[in-house]
Amino acid sequence: MKNFFIDLKRHFLTGISYMIPLVIAGAVIMGIARIGSSFYGVVDIWDASHAESSHALVKLFHTMDGIGGLALGLMLPFIAGFIAFSIIDRPGIVPGFVAGLLAKNMNTGFLGALAAGILAGYTVKFILEKMQLPDFAAGITAIFLAPVLGTLVTCLLMQYVVGAPLAGINRALELWLTSMTGTNKIVLAAIIGGMVGFDLGGPVNKAAVTTAMALLTSGITTPNTAAQVAIIVPPIGLGIATLLSKKKYDESMLEAGKSSILMGLVGISEGAIPFAIESPLKVIPINVIGSALASALAVMFGANNPAPISGFYGWFTVEKWPLYVLSIFIGAFFIAFANILLRKPAQELAAE
After folding, report:
1. CB 114 within 8 A of CB 12
2. C-alpha triplet 166, 172, 174: angle, nearest 5°
3. What one-character DSSP code corresponds to residue 296?
4. pLDDT tens digits for 231-256?
5. Number of domains observed in the structure of the chain
6. pTM of the model
7. Domain that residue 312 falls in
8. Which of these, 303, 333, 110, lies nearest to 234 by C-alpha position?
9. CA distances from 130 to 113, 116, 141, 145 (A)
10. Where is the PTS EIIC type-2 domain (predicted)?
């Protein structure tokens, strides 16, 4: 059993190694677009209306933001596809990619992508080991049966076993969060912050963020303030950790740290995903605590963010913005130092 979990971690790390260049490409392109558009007073460059802008550079930045978003949209299929590749080599890629895309469409987040990659890899492995055809037809298994049956079985399991329960959890969380609007603001902010920091764009995160944004239409801004703070705390914090303790991270994670900071500054929590996948039992709880801490502090200090904007270009429109920014960096440095303290040096991890 111990060997199984060691192999599982190796498969996850393989998925990360293939995903990191994709994340860097998407994050840098999107970051340039959002930073550039902010000089022209545009804080929602992703909005479709900017495609028809009379300003050539604004239109270009809108196109660039879409290209970056397209690259980042492939993140979950990449993770799932290359986890499956690590398990069973090339026959696992197609089932993994398709199941990862399904996980994305079902809003299951990166946890769903991990499940998709594992299911695809071991399903194809089972097919290749158990379906022994005569020698003259042996090649059919790898080029026909494995991709067809592997994709079908994996996607059916995702659709009816993994996806449906996660969707139910997502709906329940939205209802629960809405019902808590009248409770203590600081406690509510901490809960929302912890939820947003938990799965980095997954169903728990989206339940909190979507509900917080929906409550804005009723003039309730506390949940949105908490959510927008928590969106960016994990990627900034984990990026800072790689800058402060380079000996504890290998080259690929150091590169991921650079893009993670950039993604955090422009409001994209997925920059922290490579770190969460590499060491989920340590990183996820730290992310939850750091995000909850930052959100609670922002609300306690009286900061108020009435707009669904988490990136740095929206910080200065927040009421009591210096305290808002201070809360973000308190949470981020908590995450950075906690990860540094609990993480072994890169050489020890490689040896293990």
Report:
1. yes
2. 105
3. H
4. 999 999 999 999 999 888 988 889 89
5. 1
6. 0.66
7. 180-352
8. 333
9. 26, 21, 10, 12
10. 8-342
